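Objective 1.3, modelling of assemblies. Example input:
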Amino acid sequence: MAGGSREPGRTVTSKVLAILEAFESSRGALSLTDIAEKSGLPLSTTHRLVNELTDWGFLSREPNGRYQLGIRLWELAQNTGRQLRDAAQPYIQDLFSLTGETAHLAVRAGHEVLYIDRVYGSKRVPRASRVGGRLPMHATAVGKVILAFEDDWVRDAYLNRDLERPTAHTHIDPRKFAEELGQIRAQGYATTLEEVRLGSCSIAVPVFHTGRIGAGLGLVLPTSHASTMTRHLPVLKGISAQIERATARIPLETLIGVHRKGKD
Amino acid sequence: MAGGSREPGRTVTSKVLAILEAFESSRGALSLTDIAEKSGLPLSTTHRLVNELTDWGFLSREPNGRYQLGIRLWELAQNTGRQLRDAAQPYIQDLFSLTGETAHLAVRAGHEVLYIDRVYGSKRVPRASRVGGRLPMHATAVGKVILAFEDDWVRDAYLNRDLERPTAHTHIDPRKFAEELGQIRAQGYATTLEEVRLGSCSIAVPVFHTGRIGAGLGLVLPTSHASTMTRHLPVLKGISAQIERATARIPLETLIGVHRKGKD
DNA sequence: AGACGGCTTCCGCTCAGTGGGAGCTTGGGT
DNA sequence: ACCCAAGCTCCCACTGAGCGGAAGCCGTCT
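Predicted structure (tokens):
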């Protein structure tokens, strides 16, 4: 009999979005069966929906039959936060040119930092962050600096959880970390030393928007440059001020402090 | 009676995607009613779907009640073509640093060029293209250079249509334009002079991938610099070669020559 | 205070969506 | 050449998710 073990209460919309989100974790392309598994849908349902998404260009099919997110999706998504990225990009670039180190801009997304833009050279550098990627706030300089200048309740909520430990150098003691945040607020910048990933360190300054913390502007460097990290502070401060000026009139409510991944 | 004048045959998926696409044309945020109009859906249907999309973070609601595409969408979409952008970005940046002019990389999407990445300075420049945006091929240098090196059937199909004319300087005579493409193929680069937009000109060279034309790499300049445009050719060629090398091993089938916007 | 525009909620009807299974295609093992 | 398995595509009768008109609500302007 048809429709025997359907799972009622699941909307079509949720199925479509689950299919799109199936691509989040995976580096490469997915087969139909992979998608069905990741999204928890029956194969034939997946097949029908995937076909429709492909017709619309939201998924694309590779010659080998596997699927990938389509450029149609990418095109549309470029409108999100465009004003911020367009306004900030040239300055992030300046920051890269002036320091020669990987420069990035990140905002808070729930309990994580979301990387909005990133400028780097062609030489290979250990990279933990990527544009559109997230990392825990307490392990990154941009994250620390955002948290340090956030409202008390955000900071309290953050510290009131178990903190991940990506490396042995990550600071995870809530009391010590709270002190560190106080010091960051006092000195106006944050640093990390191999706290996300061995071999790299970082430094970041706050970017304010309408009187509140808006974003973090930072540099990532190989650990070998760690001792000279603070020499970049004047440039960081200067560029931060320029970004503040360039973005002052842009409404960013929908970008700053956005909700956590998934549904809470 | 409920369900009186429904429009049957329309899938839920198509409605969801129509809602997302409603944001394509609009610069800013949309009200519920705007979305309903643009997507051609009844208000209450729009309301239900929009709410669900908002729960999932695919749309976000501004304090004033209007909707905008959510960062969740942007995050996911960053995976599309990431390899190409990540590999090419540093070189596009070099191109900008070396020339001081707006530099960009574009691929063909049906009968248009789709801008993949773009690096520019903080000084205001007339901008027609934007990342994720499309322009007609015959009006842009990147478009011309891609078309010039494309397979015959693509070129023939292109010329076999009425060509838009964004400015009075746009070349739209099919015969003359075909000749121009021949010349571009011979000389290895394309130029435009106020053909998309008054006040700006451009120059572009091809980027090959697996023996086929893959992308166009170009500069946009104010018309006042037009006479010195070709002085940048050596740099353009050099950077193009570097991008070819950096992207040689990346599979780009799903990005190159993608289908036209919407459903054909 | 009344009117208006835009958003939200309600609810019974109905057809779009469903998914097990059958059929097909592909590749690789023997 | 043959078989088998894995993965994809197609089919089709049942049914509850989706539907949308209408009523209610909530600011805002006059």
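The two ends of chain A are 37 Å apart (CA to CA).
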